[in-house]
C-alpha cells in the first residue's frame, strides 16, 4: 500500500515535471519565434536607445500596426534628439495612435526633425494635428524655411494674367505682382489658403491704385503700392505670413476716364438731339392745331354767312323787311 502511494506520488511529480518542461519549451519556442520575427527590429531599437520591447512589437502586430514604420520613426526621432521626454515626447504609444488614426508617421517625424534643425517650434501634437487635418506638414515646414512665391493673379487659377486698376485721372494700369509667403504653423489648422492671399493682395493693389491721384505717380514709385498693401495686414487668419509683395510688371492700359467722358458727351448730344426733335415735333403739332382752328373759324363764318339769306327770306315772308323799308323812307322825308 505504501509502495503504491509512493509510486503515485512519483508519477505526479513526474507529470508536473514534464508539464513544467513543456511549458518551458513553449515559452522558449515563443521567445525564439519572437526573436526570429522581431529580433532585428528589437536589436536595432535597443542599440539606438529607442526603448521598444518585444511585447510592444507583438502588440503592434496584433493591432495591425506596421512595427517597422513605428520603430524607424522612433529611431529617427531619438537619433535627431527630438521628443526624448518620456511623458510628452515621441513615445511608441503616440506613434501607434497616430498610425491607427490614418496619419503619415514618417512624414510627421521628418517634419519635426526639419523644424528642429531650422529652430522652429513644432511639437509632435501640433505636427500630428496638422497631418490629420489633411495638410502636408513637411511641405509646411519647408515653406517656413524657404518662402514660397505666389503670382497675383495666378495663371493656373485664373484666365487673367494681370490685375486691372484705374487711377483717379481715369488711366488704367495693368499690374502683375509676386507675393512671397511662408507658412504660419500656428495658424495652419483652420487658416485660409493661397486663394485668400491672392484675392486679398489683388484687392489691396486695386484699392491703392484707385486712391492715387495720377497714374504717373504709381509708375514712378510702385513700391508705394507694396508698402500700402503690406500695412493692411492681409495675412490675418491665414495659414501664411506675407514676407513681401513685389510689383513684377506694370503697363498702361486704356484711358478709361477720357472714354467715359466721350461716351457721356455722346450721350448728352443724343439727349439734346432728342429734345430738339421733340420740340420740333411739338411745334409742328401746334402749327397743325392752329391751322385746324383757322379752318374751323372759316367754316363757322361761312355757316354764319349762309344764315343771312335765310334770315332775309324769312323777313320778306313775314313782311318785316317791307315795314323796315317804309319806316326808313318816312324818316328820310
TrEMBL record:
Main localization category: membrane
Transmembrane segments: 15-36
InterPro entries the UniProt entry points to: FloA (IPR022853)
Record localization: Cell membrane; Membrane raft
UniProt keyword list: Cell membrane, Membrane, Transmembrane, Transmembrane helix
Membrane topology: Single-pass membrane protein
Organism domain of life: Bacteria
Function description: Found in functional membrane microdomains (FMM) that may be equivalent to eukaryotic membrane rafts FMMs are highly dynamic and increase in number as cells age. Flotillins are thought to be important factors in membrane fluidity.
Assembly behavior: Homooligomerizes.
Family: Belongs to the flotillin-like FloA family.
Protein name per the record: Flotillin-like protein FloA
Source organism (scientific name): Adhaeretor mobilis
Organism taxonomic ancestry: Bacteria, Pseudomonadati, Planctomycetota, Planctomycetia, Pirellulales
Amino acid at each position: 500500500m505504501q509502495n503504491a502511494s509512493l509510486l503515485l506520488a512519483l508519477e505526479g511529480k513526474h507529470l508536473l515535471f514534464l508539464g513544467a518542461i513543456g511549458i518551458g519549451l513553449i515559452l522558449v519556442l515563443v521567445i525564439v519565434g519572437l526573436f526570429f520575427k522581431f529580433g532585428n527590429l528589437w536589436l536595432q531599437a535597443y542599440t539606438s536607445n529607442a526603448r521598444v520591447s518585444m511585447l510592444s512589437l507583438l502588440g503592434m502586430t496584433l493591432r495591425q500596426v506596421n512595427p517597422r514604420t513605428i520603430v524607424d520613426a522612433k529611431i529617427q526621432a531619438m537619433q535627431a534628439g527630438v521628443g526624448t521626454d518620456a511623458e510628452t515626447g515621441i513615445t511608441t504609444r503616440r506613434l501607434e495612435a497616430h498610425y491607427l488614426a490614418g496619419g503619415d508617421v514618417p512624414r510627421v517625424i521628418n517634419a519635426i526633425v526639419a523644424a528642429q534643425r531650422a529652430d522652429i517650434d513644432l511639437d509632435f501634437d501640433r505636427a500630428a494635428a496638422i497631418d490629420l487635418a489633411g495638410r502636408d506638414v513637411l511641405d509646411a515646414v519647408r515653406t517656413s524655411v524657404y518662402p514660397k512665391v505666389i503670382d497675383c493673379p495666378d495663371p493656373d487659377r485664373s484666365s487673367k494674367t494681370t490685375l486691372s486698376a484705374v487711377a483717379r485721372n481715369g488711366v488704367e494700369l495693368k499690374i502683375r505682382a509676386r507675393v512671397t509667403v511662408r507658412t504660419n504653423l500656428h495658424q495652419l489648422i483652420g487658416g485660409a489658403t493661397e486663394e485668400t492671399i491672392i484675392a486679398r493682395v489683388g484687392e489691396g493693389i486695386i484699392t491703392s491704385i484707385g486712391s492715387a491721384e495720377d497714374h504717373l505717380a504709381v509708375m514712378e514709385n510702385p513700391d508705394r503700392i507694396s508698402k500700402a498693401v503690406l500695412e493692411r495686414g492681409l495675412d490675418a487668419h491665414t495659414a501664411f505670413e506675407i514676407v513681401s509683395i513685389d510689383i513684377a510688371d506694370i503697363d498702361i492700359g486704356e484711358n478709361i476716364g477720357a472714354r467715359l467722358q466721350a461716351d457721356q458727351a455722346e450721350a448728352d448730344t443724343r439727349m439734346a438731339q432728342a429734345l430738339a426733335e421733340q420740340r420740333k415735333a411739338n411745334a409742328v403739332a401746334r402749327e397743325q392745331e392752329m391751322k385746324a382752328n383757322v379752318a374751323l373759324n372759316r367754316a363757322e363764318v361761312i355757316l354764319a354767312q349762309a344764315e343771312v339769306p335765310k334770315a332775309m327770306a324769312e323777313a320778306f315772308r313775314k313782311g318785316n323787311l317791307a315795314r323796315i323799308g317804309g319806316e326808313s323812307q318816312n324818316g328820310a322825308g
